[in-house]
Structure formats: C-alpha cells, structure tokens
C-alpha cells in the first residue's frame, strides 16, 4: 500500500478511478445494444403495447438514477470522505452485477428483476462517478490535473461507446454475459480501491441537508420520468406529452426543483451551494457539458437506429447480427475519443482549457453538418471519417471542460461540484432520448403512414389491412429499428402473409423491405435532429469561451500536492446564502506536508 506522499500514489488513484468510471459508463450503453438479446432471453416481446415501459425503463432507468443521485453522493463525499463513498460504490456495483446475471424469471417478472437491480447498480455507479473526478483533483497538482482528468473523463465518454462494442459481442454469445463481464473487473477494482486509496482532500463537517436532498431527487426524478413517458403514445396521439401524468411530472417536478433552489439558499449546510453558479466558469462549463451530452446522446441513439434498422440490413447483415456489427462499425467514434482526450488534457495544462473546449464542440458541429449530407444508404468510408471527427471533437472538449469546472471551485466543494457536473452529463443523456426520439417520432408521423400503406399495397396487401397497419404509432416502428428487426411479419400476422404470393411474402419479411420503407421518413427526422445538435454544440462552444473570476490559486507543496486558498471564496458563498462568513471552513484530512 502506497502512502499518500509517495510519488506514485497519484497514478494509483488515477488508474483505479479510471477503471471505476469506465465500468460505470460502459454499463449505461452495454444494455442499450444488448436489448434484442435480453428481451429474447427472457421471452418478452418488446413491441407489445404493455411491454414498451419495460423497454424504456431498462434503457433509461440506469441513466435516470445516476443523474438524480450524483450530486447527493458527491456532497456526502465532501462530508464523510470521497474515497469512502467511492469504495462503497465499487462494492455495490460489483454485487449487483452478480445478481443481475442470475435473473431467475421470464417475461415481465424477468424484466422487473433487471430494472430493479439495475436501479441499485446505478446507485453504485453514481457513487463512482460522483467522486472519481474529485479524488483525481485532490491527488494531482494543477500542472498535471488537466492531463489526469483527461484520461479519466475520456474513459467515461469512451466507455459509453465501448459498451456498444462489448455489448454487441457478448450478446451474440449469451445475454447474461453482459452482466458477468463486470464481475472480475469489479472485484479487482473493489479490493484495489479499499487497499490503495486514501482521502487526501479537504473534508467539510456539516449536517445532511435532508430537505434539499429529498426535493432534488423527487423533482428531477419526476421531470426525467415524465420525459420518458412522453415518448409513448397516449389517447390517440402519437406521443404522450398531453397525458395528465406526463404534465403532472413536468410541472410538478419543475415546481419541486424551484422549492429545492429556495431551500438551498436558506439552510446552513446545503446539499449543493447554489452560489457556485455565480462563478461564470463553473456555470458556463456545466451548460456546455449539458448541451454536449444531449447532442452526443442523440447521436448515439440515432446512429444505432441508422445502422441496425437500415444500413446493415440493406448490406446483407442478418437482423440477429446487427447489434454486433453496429458496435463494430461505431469503433471509429471511440478511437476519436481515445486519440484526442488525453492529448487535449495535457495541452490544456500548458495553453489553457477554453480554446480546446470551444474548439472541440465546433469540430463536433462540423461533423454533424457532414452527416446531414449523407444519404440513408451511405458510403461507409465517409461515415467512418465523420464519426471519427465527431469523436475527436468530443475528446478535445471533455478534459478541458472538466478542468475548467473542477478548478473553479474551492477544494472542500469538489465532491459536490463533481456530482453536479456528472448530473448535467447524465441528465443530458436522458433528455437526449426524450428530445430526439420525440423529434424523430414527429418527423415519422408526417410521412411514415402513407409510405407504409403504399409499400404494403404494392406487395399485394389489401388496402384495408395496409391502412390499419399504417396507423400503428410511429414509436413502435422506431423501436423496431432501434432493436434491429423487421416487424412487418408481426404487424401483418401469419394469415395475411399466407394469403399472399410466396415471393411477395418473402419480400415483406426479408432484409430490404422494411429498411427501404423507413429510410426516407427516418432521414427526414434525422435532418431535424442533426440541425438541433449543431445548434447545441455551437452554443456550448460559445459558453466555453466565457470567463469568470480567476480560480483560487494553489500553493504547491514539495510532494506535488496542494492546499487551496479557499477561505475568501467560502466566505463569499456563505454571505450569498445569508450566513455569517466562516472563519475556518474546513480542515485538510491526511494532506501530506500540511498541518491542520
């Protein structure tokens, strides 16, 4: 076990937190691409009306829970020790992976088992994500922090895309293996963390802000859950935004979040000091992070639908193999992250982070422009180049943005700041599903019914049957493309297929009919999605250029650690919250070379 003042300790901290973050983010996407195999494994038809909720919660439950809890768990890390919370998260994450792989049920029961335990797994993942950046910021001096955070954050972002490849490969073998794969790495990381990591940061003694925690969790959960259900049809409408439950969640959740803001300005020890948002660098960095996460999440889902539902079948890939090959064909995106991320972190340490963060988002915007020009049946070399450039842009942005955010707060607030940063990122992923799926469904609703009806009648299906099938909610067609299979046989039914000439029936249920049918309407929706992504990344780039007050300076100790001069800023925060300025904000815990 290395002491905290050992020159290699910071690299141990970086290695372990990067492993933890990588595992947590891989699991946000590994299920995403494995859903066809999972639903087949538990014998559940995802497109039956009553089963759509299972699909959505299996898809979004993990991301929703991590978005809601990371701020609270980061704040608990500030109070009780970041390493203590982080280590517990590794253990919870590993244990729940074992339980998920042992799902004993079929059908709805099997789905509920997976959803419930994924929620608990997300608690462990949130513990890891909320505290990893703060642990790294504590361990590294300001001269190396950008590089260290670059490695960690790029691992987090790349993990969401690595999960696509790993999920595709493992789902081809056995759906339970997407959970088994976590176990050996989880055990290694848990034992390693408990044996090697120390709390070297500043710990702030405070009471738990129960009302703040409760209102934040309830409000954000209500809003994100309402967005989830807004995608589903309701009362004859293609989507559920007019549903009383959805409106209640959006309006009620928003009001509860307003109450959270009021509470946080009046309690002595707030869960999150909202006065930090008075720091322009902190606020603009988080806004840029949110916009980037929404754009990146939208890209991820659209590319999976594009590949699994359209491009791969048109190029002769069987539907059962499309998850695997979709993951493989998205590898250039991951490579772009891995190439640019650590390099951008190291360069931003020398030349400053703002231009790298803004430039990365502008590079992403340029790649979205290129994708706008691609036809549905694209040339893969051009597609690979564009997603590689998109990955480069994301890598250029990630580490400098994180360094901006984390270096703009006092040391005793780093856990809460890290949690808020992760909340913006994870909430962006959930928002991207609701936003981009809604835009895509709206685009499909205009042209898909007539396209579907004319395509079916051209193959001999009666006009009455074709019109009936054409009235299905567009979200069902979108989920079919997302899951990578042809729903035509299920929509028509076997009696209708049997009444058709064999050649026509084979055409309807073959590889090309469904992809060619939806490619035009899908591309219409894709144009709207990519224009919105361009707007978000450009606005995020402008936000990244905003400057605020200089971050608190740091004294470098001989061992390369630091102690932040935070008393002045902490007093400002206390005054902003209506409290008396503190004469002593915190005491360093186990900080080498520093006496309390």
From TrEMBL:
UniProt keyword terms in alphabetical order: Cell membrane, Membrane, Transmembrane, Transmembrane helix, Transport
Domain (Major facilitator superfamily (MFS) profile) ranges: 13-552
InterPro entries noted in UniProt: MFS, MFS_dom, MFS_trans_sf
Protein topology in the membrane: Multi-pass membrane protein
UniProt subcellular location: Cell membrane
Chief location of this protein within or outside the cell: membrane
Membrane-crossing segments per the record: 21-42, 54-73, 85-102, 114-136, 148-171, 177-198, 210-231, 243-263, 284-307, 327-348, 355-374, 380-399, 430-448, 525-546
UniProt-listed PANTHER family: BLR6921 PROTEIN, MAJOR FACILITATOR SUPERFAMILY MULTIDRUG TRANSPORTER MFSC
Protein name: MFS transporter
